[in-house]
Write a structure and sequence with these properties.
single chain; 197 residues; mainly alpha; 12 helices; 0% strand
């Protein structure tokens, strides 16, 4: 589906915010409920009708899970402790040592500072290359520095996000994060600004 560029910001902000905190939080649960109540095939601008309908059904089914179990899945898949099947940090995929706060994370921080973008490191324990933070940043760039969207996606986000979502989907099978990961992946694949580059 060819969606206009203005759809990128709200979709990226919604998905990024959801991936940054546990489902039971007062920020995330209303977003999840709103997403599950949407008619995704009619309202979500990225992906085909059949796939979006399947994602919608998976989201509704997953939200029938007890909040404590949703939070358990969040910690198992996005936080730890223990080895994560699909770590949500870019430098794990891009750094030669596969570490947190690796070279690619440092490079993203420099890229942000050079464009006057605050890192807000005191507000979040997460490295700037956490998938949720990067989706929120994509949304912010769309609204505030649209000329930086393509460089950000080409140099920082799409260098690893497709691999991350490809690993997340099987690791998250049967959980809330399976359809969320699929929806995020479809959304990034459909960003029209990236296709024009």
């Amino acid at each position: 589906m060819n969606a206009p560029a203005e759809n990128v910001a709200p979709c990226a902000l919604l998905l990024g915010t959801i991936l940054l905190d546990k489902p039971s939080s007062s920020t995330v649960m209303p977003l999840l409920e709103g997403l599950a109540s949407m008619d995704l095939p009619a309202e979500w601008p990225y992906g085909d009708e059949a796939t979006l309908e399947r994602i919608s059904q998976q989201l509704r089914r997953a939200l029938k899970t007890a909040p404590a179990d949703l939070d358990h899945d969040y910690h198992r898949l996005l936080v730890g402790p223990g080895k994560l099947a699909a770590p949500p940090w870019g430098s794990v995929y891009l750094d030669s040592e596969s570490v947190l706060f690796g070279d690619s994370c440092i490079a993203l921080g420099r890229w942000m500072r050079a464009r006057g973008i605050e890192l807000h490191e005191g507000e979040s324990r997460e490295p700037v290359d956490h998938i949720g933070r990067m989706l929120v940043l994509l949304s912010w760039l769309c609204d505030n520095q649209p000329d930086q969207v393509i460089p950000f996606m080409e140099e920082h986000l799409m260098t690893w996000a497709p691999r991350y979502f490809a690993q997340l989907e099987p690791a998250a099978a049967g959980t809330l994060y399976e359809p969320l990961g699929h929806l995020a992946s479809l959304t990034l694949e459909g960003v029209p600004l990236l296709r024009q580059s």
